[in-house]
Amino acid sequence: MVNSELDMDQLLIKAQTLIEALPYIQKFNGKKIVVKYGGSAMLDENLKYNVIKDVALLKLIGLNPIIVHGGGKEISKWVEMTGKEPEFINGLRVTDAETMEIAEMVLSKVNKGLVQMMQKLGVKAVGISGKDAGLMTVKKRFPGGKDIGYVGEVCKVDGGILDTLLENNYIPVIAPIGSSEDFESYNINADDAACAVAKAINAEKLVFLTDIEGVFVDPNDKSTLISEMEVSEAKQFIEKGIVGGGMLPKLSNCIDAIENGVSRVHILDGRVEHCLLLEFFTEKGIGTAILKEPLF
User: Fold this and answer.
1) Is the entire prediction scored with pTM above 0.85?
2) Which of 30, 31, 35, 32 is nearest to 194 (CA)?
3) Are 202 and 160 in contact (CB under 8 A)?
């Protein structure tokens, strides 16, 4: 029952929000969406629950989401507990045999926790790693020619496994651990794993949840956030050195995904509540979308 004119205004705002979302829901109905989930949004329980609620809602309104998650900060915590200092080269974790065991243990725990949250929200989810059923075949990675241990580069993704899960109404939740042709386990950078999955299944969207707001013309000026950029512009940003640090490999992955069949790639600040819904279903969005062509 509406008790006042103010209540009616609030209800009308909610109705308008739903109407604004309608063309986007229609466009993406039945489409495959890959969400790379990591960063601070995995550490804050409230943010974590909101991300999972967003993904559950995407599923319930007819999209086909897939989660590829990280767990780097949790892995570093456990590595430190063994008396080691986490080491990175070119943004990749140096992974000896002991660290590989820790990474697999931590990622499995994270994976099943996310699945359980999905189940509580009434959607079916299946937690797997790249090792399961040969989902991800990898080869040893040598960044800059250096041997950094059990770090893998994805060579092949069996998209049929994911299609089978989606067809049976499950949300796949993927831990970035792969297997080589000689059945050794390898740690995979979660961004790279998400990109490989998105390409293999011709995803409509690939989303990177990060700890930054998006891509900026000037990283020191928040007013220079770019809402949309085409692949050619993204390449120019890399060539001119406008982006650096952790954004450089992310933007490279975005370009790779677009050039291999993914329609749109989004870089979002996972610290913003319901960032997925705001980017997908509102006219302005909140992060940066890299696209091959305009949406409408």
Assistant:
1) yes
2) 35
3) no
